[in-house]
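Students often ask why inverse folding is considered easier than folding. One informal answer: many sequences map to the same fold, so there is more than one right answer. In these notes we will look at a single instance of the problem. The structure comes first.
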């Protein structure tokens, strides 16, 4: 077993056992606070456009962390600059609880071909499924199922978000950002950065497309 796999497995175990430092949210109160979110993410967290992510059903712990990170500047999202400044951490937790309780609408995968590093064109859905479920031993890329579950439903107690049904364009951008170091709020263990650094452009496109239709 490679050092990368050992590190990631250790972190997953510790993450699942570590108590959350974030307050529990009140979904009913959160509903009164989310008007500022609706224009981009939809009233129920199902964004109408792929340039804004769906946040319905991502998991309360994960959403709360993202809101806190965005407010404090740990995660930079230019479109949200200043939008959360007037909200307390409890407000953010309540907003997260509201959106976590909503169901995500599936985006759906597309029939695609991608060109891998050898120059051969392959079926994107087949490649995406292979990486999601089995990873890539040649590049020490672990399977996505360990954190995000076989159906892509995530692991809320551990803070791992739902992926299934998310817009492929958004997933692709996040993987590229993690790979480039433009997004760095994946914990001190750099779980996503260590995964994404091994993914090729073709693998990222294939993986994002597969996840969009996973359910």
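Output (designed amino acids):
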């Amino acid at each position: 077993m490679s050092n990368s796999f050992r590190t990631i497995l250790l972190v997953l175990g510790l993450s699942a056992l570590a108590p959350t430092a974030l307050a529990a949210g009140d979904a009913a109160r959160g509903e009164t606070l989310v008007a500022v979110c609706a224009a981009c993410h939809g009233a129920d967290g199902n964004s109408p456009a792929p340039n804004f992510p769906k946040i319905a059903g991502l998991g309360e712990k994960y959403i709360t962390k993202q809101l806190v990170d965005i407010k404090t500047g740990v995660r930079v999202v230019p479109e949200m600059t200043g939008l959360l400044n007037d909200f307390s951490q409890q407000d953010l937790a309540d907003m997260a609880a509201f959106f976590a309780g909503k169901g995500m609408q599936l985006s759906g995968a597309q029939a695609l071909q991608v060109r891998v590093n050898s120059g051969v064109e392959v079926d994107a859905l087949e490649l995406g499924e292979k990486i999601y479920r089995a990873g890539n031993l040649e590049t020490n890329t672990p399977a996505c199922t360990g954190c995000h579950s076989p159906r892509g439903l995530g692991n809320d107690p551990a803070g791992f978000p739902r992926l299934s049904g998310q817009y492929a364009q958004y997933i692709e951008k996040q993987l590229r950002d993690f790979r480039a170091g433009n997004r760095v709020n994946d914990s001190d263990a750099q779980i996503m950065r260590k995964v994404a650094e091994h993914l090729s452009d073709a693998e990222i496109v294939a993986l994002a497309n597969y996840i969009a239709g996973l359910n």
